[in-house]
Design a protein that fits this description.
elongated; alpha/beta; two-stranded antiparallel sheet; disordered C terminus
């Protein structure tokens, strides 16, 4: 099981990013991971303000970063309660002496367990558990001027992040499908990505993991299991296949289209998915796991159908190094899921050091 050591959370103060921060905090608490909260002031905004106000870019940058830090402290405190408020304040003070474009903050020690338990007030309303779990290993707040996608990807690479957490969309989002920054984060971040929808129910009731047995989907499955365990949710393993006998209609009947072969084929697939289910039950005692096999030529459509109507609060799937969302089996592009989803999604990616293996 990959270790969850560090999490980067992108924050733009939208409802989706509030939900993303709350979910990231839960995962960081359970895994004792470090959490880095990043807000990026767009460079074009700085330039436009400097031009309109007759001030230098440096002056406007300093003012905007200072104001954004204070807002970020308040935002974090509102999502994670008193423990987060204290850590956020320390993070801001530590970073004020740094340059405007990329402050270099010293690590912020996590709050004591007693303070973490007190976070069950306002934090619980934001989706943060009031349990006695340990707080994150450390908390750092970052404010930068630049392009949001570039800054997020660079921060993930700089700290060798285990997971990037973003809202599905930012301010002005449509409520359906992923926004530009979240899609770009999935494509370019060197780690797995969790996109959190503001309408996601808390606690989660069901997590849908689409598995094709490739390393990327197994990493997504690992994160899905962690999230399901945190919330006590049902984990649904979905394997979408397109049976070979559907493509033999232009030939005379063969062994591959016989009833006996069909039975063996489906039994073998179900056995592989059963093995995954047993592995997750062993790794996460008490985790409820169900499996489902769907015969469909369009896995992206099948995944969306399986999550429809509240049947899943979160979808997990895999992606490859080239940035395109991994195609599941017979040519179906799972990017369809990201462009049409109305729930949260985890997109698994193999670490850069492992992506070239076997090629």
């Amino acid at each position: 099981m990959p270790q969850l050591a560090s999490i980067v959370v992108g924050v733009d103060f939208s409802p989706c990013s509030a939900a993303a921060l709350a979910q990231a905090w839960l995962l960081a608490k359970r895994s004792r991971a470090a959490i880095h909260v990043l807000h990026v002031v767009r460079r074009e905004v700085v330039r436009e303000l400097a031009l309109s106000l007759g001030r230098t870019v440096e002056q406007v940058s300093a003012d905007l970063i200072d104001g954004a830090r204070r807002q970020l402290e308040s935002f974090v405190a509102g999502q994670v309660g008193s423990a987060g408020a204290r850590e956020g304040s320390d993070a801001s003070q530590a970073s004020r002496s740094s340059g405007p474009d990329r402050p270099s903050e010293p690590p912020i020690p996590s709050a004591p367990d007693q303070a973490a338990r007190r976070a069950g007030g306002p934090g619980a309303r934001a989706g943060v558990s009031a349990s006695g779990d340990s707080p994150p290993a450390e908390v750092r707040l970052h404010v930068e001027v630049g392009d949001p996608v570039d800054a997020i990807v660079a921060r993930c690479a700089e700290i060798d992040a285990s997971l990037l957490v973003l809202g599905v969309y930012g301010e002005g989002g449509s409520g359906m499908g992923s926004g530009h920054v979240s899609l770009a984060g999935v494509r370019h971040a060197p780690c797995s990505t969790l996109l959190v929808h503001e309408r996601t129910r808390r606690p989660l009731r069901a997590v849908l993991a689409a598995v094709d047995f490739a390393p990327e989907s197994l990493i997504a499955l690992d994160f899905a299991s962690r999230v399901a365990e945190v919330d006590g949710a049902l984990l649904r393993l979905l394997h979408v296949h397109y049976a070979p006998w559907h493509r033999l209609h232009y030939r005379a009947p063969t062994e591959e289209s016989s009833p006996e072969f069909q039975r063996q084929y489906l039994d073998r697939l179900r056995g592989l998915v059963d093995d995954l289910a047993e592995r997750e039950r062993a790794l996460h005692p008490g985790l409820r796991v169900e499996i489902d096999l769907v015969d469909d030529p369009s896995p992206g459509r099948a995944i969306l159908d399986a999550a429809e109507g509240g049947a899943a609060d979160l979808i997990a799937l895999g992606t490859r190094r080239d940035g395109r969302i991994r195609k599941f089996f017979i040519g179906s592009n799972a990017e369809r899921v990201l462009r049409n989803l109305d729930v949260s999604v985890i997109v698994g990616r193999t670490p850069p050091a492992r992506q070239g293996e076997g090629r």
